[in-house]
From TrEMBL:
One of its GO terms (cellular component) is cytosol. Transmembrane segments: none annotated. The keyword Amino-acid biosynthesis applies. This is Shikimate dehydrogenase. The keyword Amino-acid biosynthesis applies.
Length: 233
């Protein structure tokens, strides 16, 4: 796993458990601190013993640029969290964050209504993946709530590449209760404390997904659970 910082990541626990379940007892999964600038040089030195790498922030955009080929969803997101080593020495980029978001929504919240927009709080890289996941969930519209609309430029572009209608709304101007009432699903990608003042209003949404999983439950998750709702992460 490449990123900076990565010491806190639970990915090794998850991946190693999967390897053991699949009988891949000689496979390893390690954390390697690397920022976006170091990533190309580091990957260029990896030999044939490497099957692939996971990439977290701040290297997801650099991973896509480094790859010799990419899946359609990685291109749509504009970033990659997975690089698979190819037989010719190249690397294939993918973004499994899309499956993570879509799968969590379906597993915990069920299929969202397609006649309402998704509300995505935040406009960073995870918001871009969330937008492409909304397309996978057969939604047609996404509304990003951000501090400044300019910060959502990347997420807006990802939504549009996925064929979605997209809008960015300023955080200070948001009517949080109305957003919750009209959303097919609320997906939070912003820091937990930033959303805390609006948690009670957002908790009334039909479906809520909070991608912030540590520490759990988040203020938003607590508000949803207190109201008898279901929240995924």
């Amino acid at each position: 796993m490449l990123g900076k910082p990565v010491a806190h990541s639970l990915s090794p626990v998850l991946h190693l458990a999967a390897y053991r379940a699949l009988g891949l007892t000689d496979w390893t999964y390690e954390r390697v601190e690397a920022d976006a600038q170091r990533l190309p040089e580091l990957l260029s030195g990896f030999g044939s013993e490497w099957v692939g790498v996971s990439v977290t922030m701040p290297g997801k955009h650099a991973a896509l640029e480094f790859a010799t080929e990419a899946t359609p969803r990685a291109r749509a997101v504009g970033a990659a969290n997975t690089l698979v080593k190819l037989g010719d020495g190249g690397w294939r980029a993918d973004c499994t964050d899309v499956d993570g978001v879509a799968g969590a929504v379906l597993a915990v919240c069920g299929k969202p209504r397609t006649d309402r927009p998704a509300v995505v709080i935040g406009g960073g890289g995870t918001a871009s993946a969330a937008a492409v996941a909304c397309h996978q969930l057969r939604l047609s519209e996404v509304l990003f709530v951000v501090r400044e609309p300019a910060r959502a430029a990347g997420a807006m572009a990802a939504a549009q590449r996925a064929g979605l209608s997209a809008e960015a709304r300023r955080w200070a101007d948001a009517d949080w209760a109305e957003l919750a009432a009209t959303a097919s699903v609320v997906i939070n990608t912003a820091p937990a404390d930033a959303v805390r003042p609006h948690a009670a209003e957002l908790a009334t949404a039909a479906s809520v997904l909070d991608v912030i999983y540590h520490p759990w439950p988040t203020p938003l998750a607590e508000a949803v659970l207190a109201g008898g709702g279901r929240v995924g992460t």
